[in-house]
Design a protein that fits this description.
By secondary structure, the chain is α+β, with helices and mostly antiparallel strands. It is built from 7 helices and 20 strands. Among the domains are: 122-222, Thrombin, subunit H; 261-339, Pdz3 Domain (Roll). The strands form 4 sheets. The chain has a 6-stranded antiparallel barrel. Strands 7-8-9-13-11-10 form a 6-stranded antiparallel β-barrel. Strands 18-17-19-20 form a 4-stranded antiparallel sheet.
Length: 344
């Protein structure tokens, strides 16, 4: 009898359900955020530049917060896929000069309302906290498929200076959230989420330290972007570029920095590549060694496809800012760095 009872107890123990393979708290956070996550598709055809990324809806009118990039700036049309498979085009509303983030607006029926992501308090984020990164990883979600979800831990919340993978300085003097949730180009601009299902940051690019050869994943804290959103809602007709430093708008209060480069403006139906036509003597570019006939391939991390793109991108830099040009001279690729000045 005792032996039979022991066998029954062992069978009962073996049949007892173990711990759940997925956390209900994580599932709830994902369910809360997924409807507001948008797959964003921009320009294609740039070598080394992915034509897709992620954004998150932050206002019911269709305002979408994402990372600014050449993917958006060079796109003749920005396409967005919502969580339920609906497709909308979008327009660029405004750029945040400091954080390199952008607000887009989904275009659709007047009065249409969209699901909105709840915004958390990034001042409460601390090292060791579990986080989720939601995004269109590797372009696997194009229709109704859910975006990929990666889980990680916050390593630190800190201000830091690093070297990017293209050896351009990582310029952001605010605090950033460093984490180890797997990032990739498809997730750039996507929400970093706490386990309560609140957005605590927007994903930036992967940054690599050239000294330690370590890749770091970061997000801009959502608190640093709330005023950008609020100011845009308060002033619908505000200049397209927002500058939080001093409360001034870049387009209204500052002229583009002087570099001394004139590119060859050729091509009627299709703009040609950004070949240097002339470099003014004594200019920042001339002192750095730029020459006529050099082909500009990149401005910092942004690939330059046409002379029009070069002019547009350079117009966003101001006096005192450093810029790095990747150029092709003959068969040699060179990197030239200089600081822009006030236009003489």
């Amino acid at each position: 009898m005792t032996r039979t009872l022991l066998i029954l107890l062992l069978f009962a123990a073996a049949a007892r359900p173990g711990p759940p393979l997925r956390s209900k708290r994580v599932d709830a956070a994902v369910q809360r955020l997924q409807p507001a996550v948008v797959k964003v598709y921009g320009v294609k055809g740039f070598r080394g530049v992915f034509g897709y990324m992620t954004g998150v809806l932050v206002h019911e009118s269709g305002l979408l917060l994402t990372r600014n990039s050449v993917t958006l700036e060079e796109a003749p049309q920005i396409k967005c896929h919502l969580h339920d498979g609906r497709r909308r085009t979008a327009e660029i509303v405004r750029f945040d000069r400091k954080s390199k983030m952008a607000l887009l607006r989904l275009l659709g029926d007047p009065g249409e309302k969209f699901p909105v992501a709840p915004l958390g308090d990034s001042s409460k984020v601390a090292s060791g906290q579990f986080v989720l990164l939601i995004g269109n990883a590797y372009k696997v979600a194009q229709g109704k498929e859910r975006c990929a979800v990666n889980m990680g831990v916050v390593s630190a919340v800190s201000s830091t200076r690093m070297r990017a993978s293209t050896s351009a300085d990582f310029h952001y003097d605010g605090r950033i959230i460093l984490h180890d949730a797997m990032n990739n180009p498809g997730a750039y601009g996507g929400p970093l989420v706490n386990l309560a299902g609140e957005v605590i940051g927007i994903s930036g690019t992967i940054v690599e330290s050239r000294e330690t050869n370590v890749q770091l994943h970061y997000a801009i804290p959502i608190n640093d972007l709330k005023e950008f959103l609020a100011d845009t809602l308060r002033r619908p007709g505000a200049p397209k570029t927002y500058d939080p430093d001093g409360g001034k708008d870049e387009e209204a209060d500052a002229e583009p920095g002087y570099h001394g480069i004139r590119v060859l403006r050729a091509g009627v139906n299709r703009a040609t590549a950004a070949y240097v036509d002339r470099v003014r003597p004594g200019s920042p570019a001339a002192r750095a060694g730029l020459r006529p006939d050099d082909l500009v391939l990149k401005i910092d991390r942004m690939r330059v496809k046409t002379w029009k793109g070069f002019v547009r991108m350079m117009s966003r830099y101001r006096a005192g800012e450093s810029v790095q040009l990747t150029i092709k001279r003959g068969s040699e690729v060179k990197i030239i760095t200089f600081k822009l000045e006030v236009k003489p």
